[in-house]
From TrEMBL, chains A, D, F:
One of its GO terms (molecular function) is sodium ion transmembrane transporter activity. Its cofactor is Na(+). This is Probable oxaloacetate decarboxylase gamma chain. The lineage of its organism: Bacteria, Pseudomonadati, Pseudomonadota, Gammaproteobacteria, Cellvibrionales. Belongs to the OadG family. It comes from Pseudohaliea rubra DSM 19751. The chain crosses the membrane at residues 12-34. The gene is oadG.
Automatic annotation (TrEMBL), chains B, C, E:
Its EC number is 7.2.4.2. Catalyzes the decarboxylation of oxaloacetate coupled to Na(+) translocation. One of its GO terms (biological process) is sodium ion transport. GO terms for cellular component: plasma membrane. This is Oxaloacetate decarboxylase beta chain. Belongs to the GcdB/MmdB/OadB family. PANTHER family: OXALOACETATE DECARBOXYLASE BETA CHAIN 2. It comes from the Bacteria. It comes from Pseudohaliea rubra DSM 19751. Keywords: Cell membrane, Ion transport, Lyase, Membrane, Sodium, Sodium transport, Translocase, Transmembrane, Transmembrane helix, Transport.
Length: 88, 434, 434, 88, 434, 88
């Protein structure tokens, strides 16, 4: 081994950290370019960031009591299906 | 009466040594932490339980047929195995084990066959280990599921936070250097591969840590996985003091600009962009990031809901069960109760601390250079530990300003940290693996 | 025209012998019992269907490449295989099979390789068998799922019922002795291993029976699994006459003390306690009871709902499909249509009867010795067959006293019976296996 | 073989049954001790034995009609998701 | 500096050749078609993504350890491998590959072992391929799930439509002949096995096509699977012109007799009847149709809802993910970017067209011979492509008569087409396989 | 090879197509016989063909609004369970 273990470790740290930073910096540039291109050529319909797609379905917004009842039913349903009907 | 003697000889009490007893205690401790303290229970419950199972004396659940046969008293078989390994017939089990590990694949298969012919079989935990970890498949499937659960929206709204995810990986490399330095100083006996696998604990990403150590340092896998998941659970204790020490109250009060909405097309194209960059520049990171991007694409593309749901539910849960038990199978006394394990635990917490500090400091630097304000607290989320670290940022931020919700802003560096440590893992595997 | 000849030679009609035709009939009978009579359909539908598939002449779905090649007409290959096995080139297929089975792992692999080189391949049912049963993994995963579905509350509220679960295992050992006696008398030709695997039918626990016979008597696996599941389904017919014959009406009317509530901490600690006792005293039972306790801990600990749900649903269902088909792959004429199968069926029902009687009688004995009343009917639930046997107890009890609900009281011995037969299985594997 | 098959079977029966009984008797003692310890040092909040955790959620007790409607919806939902949308 | 050189040497840019770049483009194109045009996205998203992963230079995700080692620069290892293969030490990688493929199983295992000893390992996509496709298990599990999703009611109500499902298989055999003719003419170089695997594209059934080509023409698997799924997605474009050209408006307006209700007993007995016929007459079709009938029996028997749900959801979704990635692993430049691929694509669309025409024409013929009216449009559904082809029939029928809903009537030939192509697959495997 | 590739292909086409047609024709006969037997010896209770078993359960027919609310709840529930609670 021409290098000491410590020297190898130092090399690895420097190159490794440098590569991580360069790669992610490149990704920043590429992502920004991508976003710019998308927003220019295919502007999206605005949608709030914190709202995943499924929340749209929830927009009918049942009252908490209804949700509680439904949740209970689902839990009971799941529990029932999870039960060991016949001993496999 | 021979039955009674056979039962006693086979019983755990007859075979129990101090190491196994301690490791069963370690397994129970992990279960306590997982269940009572809610330390990453999804992994630590299976790991802890697997650790107990692996240390049941006489059951040999974590051993191959060959390893089991070394515990058995069959002298003729042993002489045969020793002869094939080129050792004298009275070689110790330890000597046979060592020779086996450095033997080639063909000879190993032949020895396993001889042990099986003599009636020994592979333990069930070993079989789980071989399929999920030795093959590399388990962590990759988990990573696919994590990808299918990851929302890149906040990252896309503020791509600069990728730099915070990069900065926090300094914890990985600093720890690598620390491990190497301690080895050079003669305190421990870590190779460069070992040091890299230990450093990855600082990536705060369980599947990445398991994947890297399964390739670079399989012997340390148990300790590394336990350290990684334990410290991920301890993020709410480890990070806040460091975050407070490195920031002023004014900095912690900084209110960030509302994130812009991100459309579906951007969300679909981002994993493909990342994949192409990885393909061109860092193929060593392709297994981890490829599966991660695949999961995310299934999530975002909107046409394969069935597959996305399977990746996020049945598949990841089933894989987690077997991956956890397999990691637990590495918690055997001979490999865990070593002085090195203390070093791994100590270095692991240092890695988290350095990563946190690096993330916060770079965020402060970016704040100086840019006019768009960044609250430096969110730099701490760059270590990943998704979503715990982001929640910690939010909580520490609320202490300073009760109306300043940082959660969404911290999710950007948080998922960037996943990418960052996968990149670091790819570099290490490329340079040190094989 | 050669195509027509080839198609006819390959067709089932050309290859159909009486054995295969009868076995297809047996498969259809199992499906009838499963679907129309609801005999344990979750297992018997896949087993019956697998049995039909395994007996399709010419399809060789249940055979390895080597076994398939013996059916083929390639004389040169056959001579080559015979030579490697040290047999003359004109040895019969039967002789080659027998020599193969007693060959070592390395030679078997080499012969399979030669058959694959000649274009033969492993049948799909054989592949399922190798992965789920030969590896031992399938029954263990099922057992983990059963653990995740098991409520130990009634047992914890009344731990004395564990003794009823112990008593009912007498059916296992009495049957073992019966099988050995019949062999000594020259009626059958069972080894001690065979006898133990047959006895385990009395444990009334499918996965345990499959696990034990896969280790001790793989050739009998098909018949044993079919007997075990059929008799579990027949529990409502087999048990009540025995229960009524051994108890007085007054005994059947005994009202038991309301069970106390059991807290979560007790529920969490019980599987760990059981695991530690198994680890110290009976490591041979560690695979079965270890996985069972793991499943139960996931259920009760309350922090890994995702994993518990996966173990109870996707994972156990998927494993059941492949386990059932794999058991069915053992229903081939050569191994099932033997006089021994009649012995297994006869001994199996005796095992159930003796287990039921032993449970009831010990419950009567306990009733004499203790002042807390026990309805002796619940002793019958000790054979396990969860939850069917407990329901039978409840029903027979309601006949005597329409206001006396025994269901919850019977669940204690019912789950104790699962533990009891796993313990018995561990003892037998320790003393007779390997 | 010094023993006959029958003798071996008898031995196995005696030792086996004895071991099963002893093991489970030990488990009775250990379980009783465990329960006593738990109830002494960490008395649980009382909860009826027959009620699994999920029933607590069901305590809001929606009327049978609501449960029926919900169940139907769940079945329909499951059925719909199980449908073969595109032929895989 | 050596690190920098090593990273560069390992980077994709250094290893990127035109073939890999084009194949990454092909993968992106498949993703575009799947996501934007909704071309069978459940398969084409994983296939496209797997194709990109397989072509990342230097990552070797789709290669075995042996294949990876040929890319490495280890001259000593290479000489050793060459020697075992009986080649000179300076043999090219291509020569080594070719020799490896024609070597026996034992030698291949030994060479893989040598490569693993030298630090190379199997790529993750290769591992998926081996488990899901090379074993034959993946397509069969999918077929079981498809069986569990299939409603044979319309077919049972009008069994004559089975003949339409038979007629449409003419597309398969005509294409086979076309492929053979082109080879005889020297345009392509397809063997009879290749031609059969290409013809099966006309079966319009993905798992059947993958299963057949994995046995008869593994090298063409990538192109065949891509063609099969692409054309299935293009059914709404390919079929209508042919349907309109071959029918008069009056024929398209024919109103069919309302289908009778079908009871559960018929639904249960049908898969068993089909199974018995297959067992007796066409054991070569037993793997595909056996698993299909098993899935359908689980669906209809009403007593194994848990298993049926697992087969239709978790199991088929998980298998689809890995099957798709595995098919993608065959999209490597060396095997896909051949002139033959163009031939496969061209022949595939011809197969669909001929199958459609044959179905329509036979329906017209049946209409002449029978007094119960059949709308000839539903003959087009006989190619399968469930349920797309049936929907196309319905749509074209509505154009002619806005009140004539053909969907349910077309479901009969549609599922008959699945049976028909599985039968054709069985014939081809029997006559050409092994 | 005694036959040319083309001749082999032609043979395979003829025999293959013939076998497919004969097999499915036989299946038509067998299925018709089966149906006749079933309807003669075990006449089924009439049920509309397009109605899978689960629709019977749906016959209670909750109003669309209720179904919407329930669906939203299910989606939200599923979404919640699918969320990454702890980073595995
Ligand atoms: Na990280
Ligand atoms: Na039992
Ligand atoms: Na078809």
């Amino acid at each position: 081994m021409e290098e000491s273990l410590l020297q190898e470790g130092l090399d690895l740290m420097l190159f490794g950290m440098l590569t991580v930073v360069l790669f992610l910096a490149l990704l920043v540039l590429a992502t920004s370019a991508l976003s710019a291109a998308v927003r220019r050529f295919a502007p999206p319909a605005p949608a709030p960031i914190a709202a995943p797609r499924s929340d749209a379905a929830a927009a009918t917004d049942p009252s908490p009591a209804v949700v509680a009842a439904i949740t209970a039913a689902i839990v009971r349903h799941r529990h029932a299906t999870a039960r060991r009907k016949e001993g496999p | 009466m021979s039955d009674l003697a056979a039962l006693w000889a086979a019983s755990g009490l007859a075979g129990l040594d101090a190491g196994a007893a301690i490791m069963i205690g370690v397994g129970l401790l992990l279960l306590y932490l997982a269940i009572r303290k809610e330390f990453e229970p999804l992994l630590l419950v299976p790991i802890g339980f697997g650790g107990i199972l692996a240390n049941i004396p006489g059951a040999d659940l974590a051993l191959t047929a060959f390893e089991s046969s070394l515990h058995g008293g069959d002298a003729a078989l042993r002489a045969q195995l020793a002869e094939q390994l080129g050792l004298p017939a009275d070689a110790t089990g330890k000597a046979l084990s060592t020779a086996f590990e450095s033997a080639g694949v063909a000879l190993q298969a032949s020895l396993e066959g001889l042990a099986q012919d003599a009636g020994y079989s592979h333990g069930v935990l070993y079989q789980f280990y071989r399929v999920t970890i030795a093959s590399g498949v388990g962590p990759l499937v988990i990573f696919m599921g994590v990808g299918a659960m990851t929302d890149f929206g906040p990252l896309l709204a503020n791509p600069r936070t990728l730099l915070l995810g990069a900065a926090a990986q300094f914890g990985i490399f600093a720890t690598l250097l620390g491990a190497v330095a301690l080895s050079s100083a003669g305190v421990f006996d870590f190779t460069l591969q070992d040091a890299a696998a230990i450093g990855i604990i600082g990536g705060a990403d369980g599947p990445t840590a398991i994947y890297v150590s399964s390739i670079l340092a399989p012997d340390l896998l148990g300790a590394i996985a336990v350290a990684a998941y334990s410290y991920m659970a301890l993020v709410p204790l480890i990070q806040p003091p460091i975050m407070r020490a490195l920031t002023t109250r004014a900095e912690r009060e900084i209110v960030m600009v509302q994130l812009r909405p991100v459309g579906q097309l951007e969300r679909i194209l981002f994993p493909l962009l990342l994949l192409v960059l990885v393909a061109l520049l860092l193929p060593g990171a392709a297994p981890l990031l490829g599966m991660f991007c695949f999961g995310n694409l299934m999530r975002e593309c909107g046409v394969v809901e069935r597959l996305s749901a399977a990746a996020q539910n049945a598949l990841i849960n089933i894989t987690t069960i077997f991956l956890g038990l397999s990691v637990g199978s590495k918690l055997v006394a001979g490999k865990f109760l070593e002085f090195e394990t203390l070093g791994i635990l100590a270095l692991g917490v240092v890695a988290f601390a350095i990563g946190t500090a690096a993330g916060v400091l770079i965020a402060k630097l970016m704040n100086r250079l840019s006019k768009t304000p960044i609250n430096p607290l969110i730099g701490a989320a760059g270590v990943s530990a998704v979503p715990m670290a982001a929640r910690v940022c939010n909580r520490v931020g609320l202490e300073a300003n009760p109306h300043n919700f940082l959660l969404m802003h911290a999710m950007g560096p948080n998922v960037a940290g996943v990418i960052g440590s996968a990149v670091a893992a790819g570099i290490m595997i490329t340079l040190l693996g094989g």
